[in-house]
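Researcher: Next entry in the queue.
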Amino acid sequence: MAGQEGCGPTLATAGGEDVYVWNLGKPGVQLDALAPSACLPPLSGGVTALSWTSISNSLAAASSRGTISLFSQGGAPLETMTSKDASGDGERIKCISFASHSLSLCSGGSSTELRVWDCKRKEVVRTYRGHSAAISACAYGDKDMLLASGSSSGDVLVHTTASPSAASEPQRIKTGGAGGYASAVRALKFSPFRRSHVAAAGEEAVVELFDTARSDAPSLVKFTQHTGTVTGLAFSPVNELLLCSAGLDCRALFYDVQAKKLVKSVTCEAP
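Model: Structure for this entry, 271 residues:
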């Protein structure tokens, strides 16, 4: 699921091979009576990730067969790119994320490589390595100067995009819950205010905030209120203290990251 605000609030949802676009800004229409404004062509193999870009109001949809398809906000097909693994087959893409100031798109998946695409040229322009397991989450931060990726083994790598070489050693963060072990990272998000701060969460049901400005990237705070896998993270665009997480336990939790406490819990009908 992904959302953006270009020509009014717009939401994209995916299930199976289908992607629907919803215009949430229609006057006089209740949300429970809302119909999709567009239905995208089915993606063979199933949709695995979505990402909006505010540059051109375009939507990217990735599939388990390695395709990354670009669509207009109205659902018209634009371009399709294919990410392949070492054997030449389409890799199972698990995550994608647009840069905030360009049409660069990063993708990660079963190849264990983080790839940066130039969507105009439809090609990979940079590849970051360092993970030993499939990449399961990725995010740009600090005005696209930082690029973070998380894997199914629980580690997080932070790359500096301004570095002249993709082979430069990344900053390595090891996540882990109270038991001291690590599991798959499912969500990453940089703070728009404290730009060196990145939040990570996943199958361990723990939300952690790290400071990448320090070489050891210490854990600043750890929230353990979820009882199931955490699938999404979002920082408030107007309140620098507010962080939200959503999980398979059907709850959306809101935290004050400075006071290091839970401030609100919302229970939903479904994850």
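Model: Residues 126 and 224 are 36 Å apart (CA to CA).
Researcher: Noted, moving on.
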